[in-house]
Amino acid sequence: MEFRRITGLPPYVFAHTNALKATARAAGHDVVDFGFGNPDLPSPDIAVEKLAEAAHNPRNHRYSASRGIPNLRLAMATRYRDVFGVELDPDTEVVTTIGAKEGFTHVMWVLLGPGDSALVPTPSYPIHLAGPGFAGASLLPVPVVDPALGGRDPGADFFDAMHEAWQRATVKPRVVVASFPHNPTSACVDQAFMAHLVDFARSREMVVVHDFAYADLGFDGYQPPSILQVPGAKDCAVELYTLTKSFSMAGWRVGFLVGNAEVVAALTKLKSYLDYGTFQPVQIAAIVAMNEARDYPAELRATYQSRRDTLISGLERIGWSVAPPRGSMFVWARIPEPYRAMGSLAFATKLIEEAHVATSPGVGFGDGGEGYVRFALIENEARTAQAIRGLRRALPELRA
Ligand SMILES: Cc1ncc(COP(=O)(O)O)c(C=O)c1O
């Protein structure tokens, strides 16, 4: 059968590593799994209790509001004010989404169509590369960091590359996608970068869509900036915030699009046709999480930071040096020189089969991902130490 929209998608390389993981497990191996950024830490108890209570009330079983109930949008606006010092009008500048992923996909639909294009950093979280195409638009990939410059975080060269892509484009881009702390590279930026990004977009009449999935995951005192902290950013920017990583509520599917009121209104309108909103008890529990478990993100952050330290110091001990990320829940590790030529898919395969350690091959994240593997910090310290022992066994050339 012939299909639309999905035929141009590259083969899902993670399916290959998932299958290998399943085979290793079926053979009785205990695979330490850093493959999928699926948080293992529990959601806040108070949210779970509220969900159970609200689910017993039949009034909550009906369709809810697709844009999110007012108190949920208010709780989001309050969090932005308290954490980022950004004022949002919960009625016009906040819409609830079914996670950031759904929000991202559908905001592309209202911003882009056939004949349009979008600037998207690469390597990238896969939907950032696929979303413009689902909306019928073309993609203008821009390297996040130039490995030739040895950089970890994007700087002036990122804007040079963006400008070049913009100049080369036959169809002038309408949208620029950004997401920092970044998945998969864990690149982080500061407020000056965000101000530059806003300037870049505004002067070229583009909308910035900033996916802020790791808003609360900055380490060693680093607080990732919201793009909306830039004065005047609301003229041209929207941001996606999600409870998935900040509150470890991945399965609940609660996210938001906030910022420019026109874009928020456009997505709200589209969503009023597409969905009836998240199950209302989930929305009620999300309000309680944001209002009454305010410090939960800080606890999660400490856990991820400790896991990062265990992984980075363990890798260092076996001769695999990786600089510690300042944010996100990932370690983006360059494949050590003796193994680099095999490529990320073969290297990730070797790690599963011989070390019983699952990672994500960089090639699965698009251009610029080759030569790296991504560790998601979803295993605790003891399991991470076990992984290091497996890696030491499987990578003898590190010590050669
Ligand atoms: C950059 C980025 N955006 C969005 C998501 C998914 O967020 P949500 O669960 O809110 O859809 C992820 C999850 O890994 C991510 O890395």
Top keywords for this entry?
alpha/beta; single chain; 43% helix; Aspartate Aminotransferase, domain 2; 12 strands; Aspartate Aminotransferase, domain 1; three-stranded antiparallel beta sheet
Small-molecule binders here are: pyridoxal-5'-phosphate
Q: The CATH topology of the largest domain, please?
A: Aspartate Aminotransferase, domain 2
Got a strand count? 12
- Alpha-carbon distance between the termini? 52 Å
CATH homology superfamily name of the largest domain: Type I PLP-dependent aspartate aminotransferase-like (Major domain)
Largest sheet: 7 strands, mixed
Give the domain tally: 2
Determine the fraction of residues in helical runs and give it as a percent range: 40-55%
Q: State which percent range the strand residues make up.
A: 5-15%
- What is the molecular shape? globular
- CATH structural architecture of the largest domain: 3-Layer(aba) Sandwich
Name of the level-1 CATH class of the largest domain:
Alpha Beta
Overall mean pLDDT: 95
Rg over CA atoms, rounded to whole Å, is 21 Å
pLDDT < 50 stretches: none
User: What is the strand arrangement across the widest sheet?
Assistant: 2-8-7-6-5-3-4
Series of H and E elements: HEHHEHEHEHEHEEHEHHHEHHEEEH
